[in-house]
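Q: Structure tokens for this one, please.
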Amino acid sequence: MNSILRIFLLIALLGVPAWAQRGSSIGDVVVGIDKNTVLIRVSANTSELNDLALQAFASHGRYKLVASGQAFDIKFTAAGATQVRVDITKGAAATPVASEVVTGTSPRNALLRAADVAVVKTNGVGLKGFFASKVAFIRDQGRVKEVCVADLFFGEAKQITHDKALALMPRWSPDGAKIIYTSFYKSGFPDIFLLDVASGRHETFVSFRGTNQGARFSPNGQHVAMVLSGEGTPEIYLSNGQGRQVARKTRSDAVKSSPCFSPDGGRLVFTMEPGPQLYLMSTAGGSPQRLVTGFRYAAEPDWSRGNPQKIACTVRVDGGKYQIAVYDFAAGKAEVVSKATFDGVEASWLPDGRHLVYTARDRNSSVLSILDTETGNSRRISVASLGPVAQASVLAQ
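A: Here is the predicted structure, written as tokens:
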């Protein structure tokens, strides 16, 4: 177990020491403990599964790991090559809560899926599990940036493009079979490519004159929103899932970027200058309507499918620092939810609507971290061996 993980597990077990009120390394921030946490004890019958289970629950703001006392007792047992049994009891009387055998694609994946079952059975407020999610991300190798994938805690990580070019903004298809991304691969100009995850083969999705970037699938996978500049100013376009029937949806002199579908697929949120600011429009077209965030700079929106009332975005705060904010439709405004001394950018929601993955960066590096939007606590998940990483896209499993 790495030293950062050991520190956070100790914090979860023993409380927050004074020196840890702010993260001691990039990506890590401990602001405080949620007063409404659920007390749990977690264990597994192998050291590898035990460490992974502790790491997963230490990243979840709804839970507090304790060594003794009244709590849920969550035990994981390897039950086969790709199966894990989870047994949950409650309190000193060990009252049975649930017992289930979960099948995954590997021992790690089975453990994470079983831990998600435990979350559903114990969180008490209707949260979905997110531990079995996957991430696609960019590995920065200097002049070369490649697309990689991993599980949420960066096990089973692998590089899946070998373009020896600059890859940007990978986004999963809803079924997890493909990743759409931008690359300066053959033409030297940004084109959009579609990558088959299993085989590693990619094909050109869109290659028009000018820039082609920011592609993103609709929730049902039948459409793709993207930004194209072939007709002059970068505009929002929609195509079908194969890159055909391309139709322009915006018409103005303002630069647009980062389109993202609403959970029901009927609207788009995107960034537009000046500012930039966030705007909403129907996928059928029409006049964009500004979302009043309360910040002069708001960009990189991601619409939560776990809670459709929330859109995460990057804002610029006093001093020029970038932080993650969440726009709440009910409140009609955005509030900063990251509490870091470093920059926080490029948010991607996890499926529970409370946590997200984002890029934490300073002058020297960038890492991926999980952010609890209710407490501001942040825990690094990317591993040092991959070097600088960024631009995560979450796939719920």
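A few notes: The chain has two domains: 34-122, 134-395. Helices lie at 3-14, 47-58, 107-122.
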